[in-house]
Write a structure and sequence with these properties.
Chain B: Keywords: Amino-acid transport, Cell inner membrane, Cell membrane, Membrane, Transmembrane, Transmembrane helix, Transport. Chain B: Its main location: membrane. The complex is a heterodimer of chains A (256) and B (238). With 256 residues, chain A is α/β, with parallel strands linked by helices. Chain A has helices at 46-53, 85-92, 110-120, 126-139, 155-167, 185-200, 212-218, 236-241, 246-252, and strands at 8-17, 20-30, 35-39, 61-66, 69-70, 73-76, 79-82, 95-98, 173-177, 205-208, 221-226, 229-234. In chain A, strand 1 and strand 2 (20-30) form a beta hairpin. The longest helix of chain A has 16 residues, at 185-200. In chain B, helix 1 packs across helix 6 (141-171) and helix 4 (99-125) crosses helix 6. The radius of gyration of chain B is 22 Å and the shape is flat. Classes of the chains: A alpha/beta (256), B mainly alpha (238). The interface between A and B is medium-sized, with 34 and 27 residues.
Chain lengths: 256, 238
């Protein structure tokens, strides 16, 4: 029996910025329905690792396989580069990213934001895209905000809108880069609720977050990074409740 | 119709030449400006160097000198080329540098350099996160430019473009030097023949003013369009 394709696999990812090696060989495998959470102090490389997966950063070494398709690289004098940018674009369309600062396109209404990539990248018809977008906006509780511009919405609304934009691609994997870090505390809950909903529905998600309680709740796997190395990895009950290293214990300790 | 001692129709034809010249030059200048801005923001040092050389040269040499260099120099260059063709391949052609084309190219080249600076600032004013989102959703560089960077940077570029356009419009008056019959040249000829400068120069001034006023109105419309989504947040935010 043929195995179902693995949505995303990263093997031995290394990344240098100048002389500083940010990622020292990190691997990860996301099976369908997995929710993998990356935690670690700032500077541990967790966001860089996430950004390597959709090639917003180019990994210097290592392999990326998305849904059985291996991304090809070629050597240049400035280091490694994707061999075929068309392939990268195709792969990125399967890996929707949700950003810390939302990054909704500010010259478009919320609805236009959600249909933009489906229409222009996936080549759906405008009508189909709009129908799907309205259903998604309804799901994240923003149908009445469809014609608002991002500047007319709160941070929490923008982030839920950004999640609707990500869902509109019907992605293989969703990448969340500290989705609640830029939000006022009282707005975090609504965004986490939407994300929990997605996890329950069986979406494959990779998430960088500081929300440890949320990570414990929804993750199938937690990865603790320290200085570009995986220090601990496993089920949330093991990693978060029974940390083996002193460093992780200190990281998880409540801060005053 | 106003007759102006028989010069009225010719003056209107001249005004049409002015408008055509200005609009075509503007289009060329915008294209060159976008290319120049991209070149100057490029990490490739050769491309960057070409962009810098172009803007330095053009901005440092008087418009009139450049225009004559291009018009006469261009004709000499083309003659040399066609001579070579004749001797080498026995192909006999004669290309005359058209004053209108030379005018468009010169004015386009000059203002392309100024537009380049305008666009460079506007490019940089677009938040990196906006383009990052475009890339992250699988847009090709061209699509991301068309759908995201261009509409966002226009907001910042429009005041500069409007300013350049006003100066460009008036610079078209220089083309009468290379023999193009724009409205300034018609008026100058009419003044020489009739010794009545005000009769011709005041209508010319009024026509420039009319074009400028119409452009202001057009730019105000464009500014409004590219400002969509910015400002006016207070009344909606809840």
């Amino acid at each position: 029996m043929a195995a179902t394709p693995i949505p995303l696999e990263a093997k031995g990812i290394k990344k240098r910025f100048g002389d500083h090696e940010v990622l020292k060989g990190i691997s990860l495998q996301a099976q369908k329905g997995d929710v993998i959470t990356l935690i670690g102090a700032s500077g541990s490389g967790k966001s860089t690792f996430l950004r390597c997966m959709n090639l917003l950063e180019q990994p210097d070494e290592g392999e990326l396989i998305v849904h059985n398709e291996t991304i090809g690289f070629r050597a240049t004098k400035h280091g490694r580069e994707p061999a075929d940018w068309k392939q990268v674009e195709r792969i990125r369309a399967k890996l929707s990213m949700v950003f810390q600062n939302f990054n909704l396109w500010s010259h478009m209404t919320l609805l236009e934001n959600v249909i933009e990539a489906p229409v222009h990248v996936l080549k759906k018809t405008r009508k189909q895209a709009i129908d799907e977008a309205r259903a998604l906006l309804d799901r994240v509780g923003l149908l009445d905000r469809a014609d608002y511009f991002p500047t007319q919405m709160s941070g929490g609304q923008q982030q839920r809108g950004a999640i609707a934009r990500a869902l509109a691609m019907d992605p293989e994997v969703m990448l969340f880069d500290e989705p609640t870090s830029a939000l006022d505390p009282e707005l975090v809950g609504d965004v986490l609720k939407v994300m929990r909903d997605l996890a329950d529905e069986g979406r494959t998600m990779i998430l960088v977050t500081h929300e440890i309680a949320f990570a414990r709740d929804v993750s199938s796997q937690v990865i603790y990074l320290h200085q570009g190395v995986v220090e601990e990895v496993g089920a949330p009950a093991d990693v978060l409740d029974n940390p083996r290293s002193e460093r992780l214990r200190q990281f998880l300790a409540p801060k005053h | 119709m106003i007759d102006l001692q028989g010069y009225g129709p010719r003056l209107l034809e001249g005004a049409l030449v002015t408008v055509e010249l200005a609009v075509l030059s503007l289009i060329l200048a915008v294209i060159l400006g976008l290319l120049t801005a991209s070149a100057k923001l490029s990490r490739n040092r050769l491309i960057h160097g070409i962009g810098t050389l172009y803007t330095t040269l053009v901005r440092g040499v008087p418009d009139l000198v450049l225009m004559m260099l291009l018009f006469y120099g261009g004709q000499i260059g083309i003659n040399m080329l066609t001579d070579q063709l004749y001797y080498a391949f026995d192909i006999d052609i004669f290309i005359n540098v058209d004053a209108f084309v030379a005018g468009v190219i010169t004015i386009g080249l000059i203002f392309g350099a100024y537009m380049g600076e305008t666009f460079r600032g506007a490019f940089q004013s677009v938040e990196e996160g906006q383009m990052e989102a475009a890339r992250a959703y699988g847009m090709s560089p061209l699509l991301a430019f068309r759908r995201v960077r261009f509409p966002l940077m226009m907001r910042h570029a429009l005041p500069g473009i409007g300013n350049n356009w006003m100066v460009l419009l008036k610079t078209t008056a220089l083309v009468s030097i290379i023999g193009l019959t724009d409205m300034v040249r018609v008026a100058a000829e009419a003044t020489k023949a009739t010794h009545e400068p005000f009769l011709f120069m005041i209508p010319v001034a009024l026509i420039y003013l009319l074009i400028a006023t119409l452009s202001e109105w057009g730019f105000a419309k464009l500014t409004k369009r590219y400002n969509t989504g910015f400002g006016e947040s207070s009344e909606w935010n809840n």
